[in-house]
Amino acid sequence: MTFLSKNRWLLAFILLFVLTIPVSLGLYGNHLINGHDALGALVRALYMQRYGGDGQFLVRWASDLNFGYGYPMFNFYPPFFYFVSVVFSFLTHDIVQSINLACVLFWVLSGFGMYLFAREFWGHKGGLLSALAYIYAPYHIQDLYVRGAFAEFSSFAFFPLIMLSFYKIYQANDKRYFLLGVVSAFALSLTHNIMSMLFFPVAVVYSLFLFFINRNSRAFYATFLILALGLMASAFFWLPALLEKKFLNLSFLISMRYDFHRNFISLGQLFRLPWSNTTDSDGISFQIGIVHFLLALMPLALISRFFKEKKQAALHYLFFILVGFTFIFLTLPFSQSFWNMVSLLKFVQMPWRLLTIITFAFSFLAGAIMVFFKDRPSANYIFVFVIGLMILMPLKLSSSDHFSKMDKNGIQNNLSNYVFLGEGEYTPKWVQVPPLAFPPQKFEIVQGAGQFSQYTRVSAVEYRIQINADQPSLVCFHSFYFPGWRVFIDGQEAQINPNNKYGLILFVVPQGNHQIRTAFYSTEIRNIGTIISCLGFFLIAVILLRRV
Question: Which stretches of 234-264 are DSSP H helices?
Answer without folding.
Answer: 235-243, 251-254
